# Entry
Amino acid sequence: MAKGDDALARKKNKSNRKKMNRKNDSAAVSSRIAAIIAAKKRRQTGKRSMCQGMCFSLPTPEDPFNEKLGKVSIVKEKKKKKKKVKSRDALSVNKSSLKKPSRDGDEKKTEKMRMIHGPRKLVMLCLTEIESSFHNLEKPLFTSTWGNEFWKSFHSGKDVVETSVTSSSLEQIAWIVSTATDAISMREKYEESLPLSSSLFLLYLVPSQSKASEVRSVCKALKRLGVHAVSLHNGAEIDHQISGLKSLEPEFIVSTPERLLEIVALKGVDISGVSLLVIDELGSLCASGYLDAVKSIKQAITSEHRSVVFNDSASCTPAVLSLLGRF
# Structure
């Protein structure tokens, strides 16, 4: 390569280096301009740093050099944040120190609310279903004074002895089975810890097959609501009744005392977990010699339960006293 060509190459390289330097300088200038624009935008939106606040604020006699500008507000904000954190900690401590209400307290509160507001909607729905099945009623079932008094006694944990009539009426049966249906619903909702080995809730003892059919006809109206009732008496084969009990698992059983004891002896049904025991026509049961059978059934119920006795015979008063220790 000639000498003149070397000189031209060096000159060209020098010019290229100058161009690269100029590009770097322009990039630096662009960065500065971008910073200025960003600062201007922050000033317009009110988001300025401490030094920018000093530049655009006038001095005061107390702070002629703007040394305290912005510092006080920042300190105050920090203090406020600390206070908020402390309040949150205190709140968390208070929440952790609170005790959850006991289950017994909730149940007592529920019972009080029931007593204040009267029978629930489910009771009224059951009574309506029964009314639709019986068209010859003289008055609506929900207006029954006896029914409302029974409902209050049941939820206050008291036993009931009815001495004004010999046998239960359709109105009384309707209120008993409707209250029992409502109690089953409440137990499933609030007492989930109870064992589900026995689904039997109501045991209705009657002296005859005809009375058992009458009671079951009232319970049959509640089948649409998921409540099943079984009638046990001497008019049917015992094996058939036992197989029906095992397959259906009823909530209500209407039975004569002697047939029930036979099925219990054969382990066809478990009555230990009954919650409501109704003894209808106790005078007839005593006259027929079934008082000992009724006592055996009462002793077989080991769970806490309520009892309802229909008896207008003064001669059976000792029997009532022996069945119900509180009377």
